[in-house]
């Protein structure tokens, strides 16, 4: 039996259509166009693609996006000045500094400087604290998208064993928090594990819901998955693979794969997200929602 494919791309389109309607309504009521400022430092090729996707997604949903590009030689102080300026700009409702930053820039100092009211990534310690106390202001985009996927596909989380592999501040830790929270898409029994956990397969095999966010290509194999489990793949790994083309000749191609060995795991899991077309499109979608909610709060529409 092959697992049900959880189509993140299609779901993202549905949610984006809802957001687009809400943005139009918000503009009609307030005369304010929700605006996201994205800061891109340097020339990282993957970051350029991600940032372009964010700009296009804003445009399609009726939000304004402002891209501030800075050279890789930018100093921490120069970036601080820009962030402070965006924090103080009443026409900007969300501020996102694309990661990774060049090595010489003090990343924590920059992220801590983003106004918590405009922190659409939910990386600021104040926002992380609010999430951990179950009274979030913003939810981090990838975990938020995964929670939406579970809820909208009717996947029960209450009382289930959820295992998150990966302990990053961007995905692993906040994902654990959301699954642990009281209410819809939460109330799970959560285990957070990582590359240093002993006997990972024993832990992952306990999972009713398995979230792979470890950043290693095809790390989760079929023997690590409980039959019927829901498997969510957060990985985005570019790998070189040798294939045999239609003329019988070998060639090396570049391929995007997840943290889950899709081909083997889909034969064991009950449901699985593909890569691409799974979690990725939902991340950008929740960013749009965060920007809209930031604007709502800043005009006093929302607590
Ligand atoms: N780089 C990769 N993912 C992210 C993200 O979610 N937010 C930011 N700011 N940078 C990223």
- Main β-sheet description: 6 strands, parallel
- Tell me the Rg in angstroms: 20 Å
Largest sheet strand order: 1-11-8-7-5-6
Strand content: 15-25%
Number of strands: 11
Distance between the first and last residues' Cα: 47 Å
Residue share in helices?
25-40%
Poorly predicted sequence stretches spanning 5 or more consecutive residues: none
C-alpha geometry: globular
Write down the secondary-structure element order. EHEHEHEHHHEHEHEEEEHEH
Bound molecules: guanine
Structural class: alpha/beta
* Mean pLDDT metric: 97
Short description:
The chain has helices spanning about 10-30, 45-60, 75-85, 105-115, 125-130, 140-150, 170-180, 200-205, 260-265, 280-300; strands spanning about 5, 35-40, 65-70, 95, 160-165, 190-195, 210, 230-235, 235-245, 250-255, 270. It is an alpha/beta fold and about 300 residues long. It starts with a strand and ends in a 5-residue tail after the last helix.
């Amino acid at each position: 039996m092959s697992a049900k494919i959880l189509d993140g791309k299609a779901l993202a389109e549905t949610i984006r259509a809802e957001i687009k309607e809400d943005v139009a309504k918000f503009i009609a009521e307030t005369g304010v166009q929700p605006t996201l400022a994205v800061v891109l430092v340097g020339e990282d090729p993957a970051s350029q693609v991600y940032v372009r996707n964010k700009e296009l997604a804003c445009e399609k949903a009726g939000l304004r996006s402002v891209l501030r590009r800075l050279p890789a030689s930018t100093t921490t102080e120069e970036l601080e000045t820009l962030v402070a300026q965006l924090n103080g700009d009443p026409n900007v409702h969300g501020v996102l500094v694309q990661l990774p930053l060049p090595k010489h820039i003090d990343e924590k100092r920059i992220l801590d400087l983003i106004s918590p009211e405009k922190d659409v990534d939910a990386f600021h310690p104040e926002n992380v604290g609010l999430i951990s106390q179950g009274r979030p202001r913003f939810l981090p985009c990838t975990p938020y998208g995964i929670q939406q996927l579970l809820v909208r596909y009717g996947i029960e989380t209450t009382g289930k064993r959820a295992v998150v592999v990966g302990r990053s501040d961007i995905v692993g830790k906040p994902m654990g928090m959301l699954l642990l929270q009281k209410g819809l898409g939460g109330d799970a029994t959560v285990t957070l594990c990582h590359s240093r956990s002993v006997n990972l397969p024993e832990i992952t095999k306990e999972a009713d819901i398995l979230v792979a966010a470890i950043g290693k290509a095809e790390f989760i194999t079929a023997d690590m998955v409980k039959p019927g489990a829901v498997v969510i793949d957060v990985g985005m790994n570019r790998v070189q693979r040798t294939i045999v083309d239609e003329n019988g000749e070998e060639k090396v191609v570049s391929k995007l794969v997840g943290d889950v060995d899709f081909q083997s795991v889909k034969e064991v899991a009950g449901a699985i997200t593909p890569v691409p077309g799974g979690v990725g499109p939902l991340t950008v979608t929740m960013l749009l929602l965060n920007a809209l909610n930031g604007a709502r709060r800043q005009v006093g529409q929302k607590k």
